[in-house]
Amino acid sequence: MVFAGQEASEEFIAAEVRARPAPTDPLHAAVAALQRAAETMYEQYRDGAVLLGRVIAASPELQERELGKRAALAERIAAALRDRGTAAPAAAVTAWTAVAIFFVARNQWNQTGNERTLAELMGVALDDFLAATIVETYDERP
Fold first, then answer.
1. 111, 50 in Cβ contact below 8 A?
2. pTM score
3. Local structure of residue 111 (DSSP, 8 states)
4. Angle at which helices 46-57 and 60-83 pack, to 10 degrees?
């Protein structure tokens, strides 16, 4: 993560994934956990996020480091999803999707002039993702 200690953030998020009610599908469980982390841990760092976003964007080394953090977070979320009973391949895809949603939202959140919360932006990113990927009928499979 970019603010609180990486290990503490990941453990908080994993615990939140595991705590989601059983009927919650894996993607919504993962995004809800990330939203909870945003509300309780990250929102207080909004002012610093703008500067941090600029610093990361200007540094290939920091961009590479951030990719490693994304991978670690995705693995922690996938493990929590597996603990909830999600099959390993589905847990991996779902975790990476949730992490992508988080970082799309984070990259909007840390823009100068943004007034929306990180959790709100994650909800928008999730809705946009679902609207782009879910169709009522699927006639062909590759």
1. yes
2. 0.87
3. S
4. 120
